[in-house]
Design a protein that fits this description.
Length: 83
């Protein structure tokens, strides 16, 4: 799901460096609000959701709730940021 949604957001970018314009970012953010993507990790008590976290790649991260987020490289799926 993360890779599919990352590709969908990347397709919105009109810039050569792959970053999103303010309008593209707003459109992608609105899409995630209108059509939430959630799933459950066996180790988490509540479902987590994908959301737009940045305007430069990688865009899509996992929102664990309570201010906990993680970003993953969409190719290797290694965590590149978490808080």
């Amino acid at each position: 799901m993360l890779q599919d949604n990352e590709a969908r957001v990347r397709a919105l970018s009109s810039r050569t460096d792959g970053s999103l314009t303010e309008e593209e970012f707003a459109r992608a953010k609105a899409w995630f609000l209108e059509e939430p993507v959630t799933f459950r990790f066996e180790t988490e008590p509540e479902p987590v959701r994908l959301r737009l976290l940045r305007s430069v790649p990688p865009y899509v991260g996992v929102d664990f709730g309570q201010g906990r987020n993680a970003m993953f490289d969409p190719v290797t799926m290694r965590c590149v940021y978490s808080n």
